[in-house]
């Protein structure tokens, strides 16, 4: 479920290029439509209990919404002030940041296999964006770091309320982002209406793909440590690069192919190993349960 989220939102960078609007305009429509999309999903899932779904999130949910907002703003502003490769490289550190936050605040210990996977994926992501990275601006790099820390903090904060689904809260994030974008656009004339082509791409991206994908990602901490959710989020970097190549013909470098293969191979290998251990654990549990049955003890 968590891996499906990044795959669904992976055309994000491609569709932003196809929309071709200024950042403030994209942020406004993105925030507004994403809020409507999340609200529609919450209504479909909860029906008349929608208000209760929001209420269950409580104060922690508002913190999740604010962190989600910071990650969006950090990502967009980071791309505005520094190279895109720098932003992606810094964002790739989100799983490591999440692991450290979880260790300090939640006392969660990650197995060595997860640390190895994080290290390999960091190397792979660095190779993908190597050609587009550079010194950049410390302001832009700072915004990218804000995005990475906010993303990791979001997943870690979700883990503090086990069993509580925080996926409704990004609806508030969309409204906050739209309001801020509107305020920043006022000196330059306000928000313009998109043309028919731009509107179509905006609806597809912001009303469908982003709410659906981030709903799945936001539910990830219900079942996985925060670092593992961040690790699976790196799938977007790999598949997003492929989308741009397939549709716009922007062919990745050889290093990017090697890096993408390293990220995908690492996640696949880790998933298979985790599956093997999970099956072994369940088999051992079934054998122990069978031995504890009264008939087994009498025999």
UniProtKB/TrEMBL annotation:
<feature type="transmembrane region" description="Helical">
    <location>
        <begin position="136"/>
        <end position="157"/>
    </location>
</feature>
<dbReference type="InterPro" id="IPR000620">
    <property type="entry name" value="EamA_dom"/>
</dbReference>
<feature type="transmembrane region" description="Helical">
    <location>
        <begin position="87"/>
        <end position="106"/>
    </location>
</feature>
<feature type="transmembrane region" description="Helical">
    <location>
        <begin position="57"/>
        <end position="81"/>
    </location>
</feature>
<feature type="transmembrane region" description="Helical">
    <location>
        <begin position="113"/>
        <end position="130"/>
    </location>
</feature>
<feature type="transmembrane region" description="Helical">
    <location>
        <begin position="254"/>
        <end position="273"/>
    </location>
</feature>
<feature type="transmembrane region" description="Helical">
    <location>
        <begin position="199"/>
        <end position="217"/>
    </location>
</feature>
<keyword id="KW-1133">Transmembrane helix</keyword>
<protein>
    <submittedName>
        <fullName>Permease of the drug/metabolite transporter (DMT) superfamily</fullName>
    </submittedName>
</protein>
<feature type="transmembrane region" description="Helical">
    <location>
        <begin position="27"/>
        <end position="45"/>
    </location>
</feature>
<feature type="domain" description="EamA">
    <location>
        <begin position="21"/>
        <end position="129"/>
    </location>
</feature>
<keyword id="KW-0812">Transmembrane</keyword>
<dbReference type="GO" id="GO:0016020">
    <property type="term" value="C:membrane"/>
</dbReference>
<feature type="domain" description="EamA">
    <location>
        <begin position="140"/>
        <end position="267"/>
    </location>
</feature>
<feature type="transmembrane region" description="Helical">
    <location>
        <begin position="229"/>
        <end position="248"/>
    </location>
</feature>
<keyword id="KW-0472">Membrane</keyword>
<feature type="transmembrane region" description="Helical">
    <location>
        <begin position="169"/>
        <end position="193"/>
    </location>
</feature>
<dbReference type="Pfam" id="PF00892">
    <property type="entry name" value="EamA"/>
</dbReference>
<dbReference type="InterPro" id="IPR037185">
    <property type="entry name" value="EmrE-like"/>
</dbReference>
């Amino acid at each position: 479920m968590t891996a499906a989220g990044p795959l669904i939102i992976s055309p994000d960078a491609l569709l932003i290029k196809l929309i071709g609007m200024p950042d403030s305009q994209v942020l406004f429509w993105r925030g507004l439509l994403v809020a409507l999309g999340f609200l529609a999903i919450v209504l479909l899932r909860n029906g008349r209990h929608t208000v209760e779904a929001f209420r269950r999130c409580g104060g922690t949910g508002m913190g999740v919404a604010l962190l989600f907002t910071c990650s969006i703003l950090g990502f967009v502003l980071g791309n505005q002030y520094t190279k895109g490769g720098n932003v992606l490289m810094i964002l790739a550190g989100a799983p490591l940041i999440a692991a450290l936050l979880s260790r300090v605040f939640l006392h969660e210990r990650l197995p060595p296999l997860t640390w190895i996977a994080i290290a390999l994926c960091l190397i792979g992501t660095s190779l993908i964006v190597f050609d587009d990275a550079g010194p950049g601006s410390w302001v832009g790099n700072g915004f990218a770091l804000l995005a990475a820390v906010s993303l990791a903090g979001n997943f870690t904060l979700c883990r503090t309320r086990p069993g509580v689904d925080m996926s409704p809260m990004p609806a508030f994030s969309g409204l906050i982002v739209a309001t801020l974008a509107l305020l920043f656009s006022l000196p330059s004339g306000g928000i313009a209406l998109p043309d028919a082509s731009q509107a179509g791409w905006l609806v597809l991206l912001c009303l469908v793909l982003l709410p659906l994908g981030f709903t799945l990602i936001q539910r990830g901490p219900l079942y996985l440590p925060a670092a593992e959710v961040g690790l699976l989020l790196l799938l977007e970097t790999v598949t997003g690069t492929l989308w741009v190549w397939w549709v716009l013909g922007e062919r990745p470098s050889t290093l990017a192919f090697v890096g993408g293969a390293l990220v995908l191979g690492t996640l696949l290998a880790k998933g298979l190993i985790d599956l093997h251990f999970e099956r072994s654990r369940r088999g051992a549990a079934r054998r122990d349960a069978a031995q504890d049955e009264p008939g087994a003890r009498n025999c």
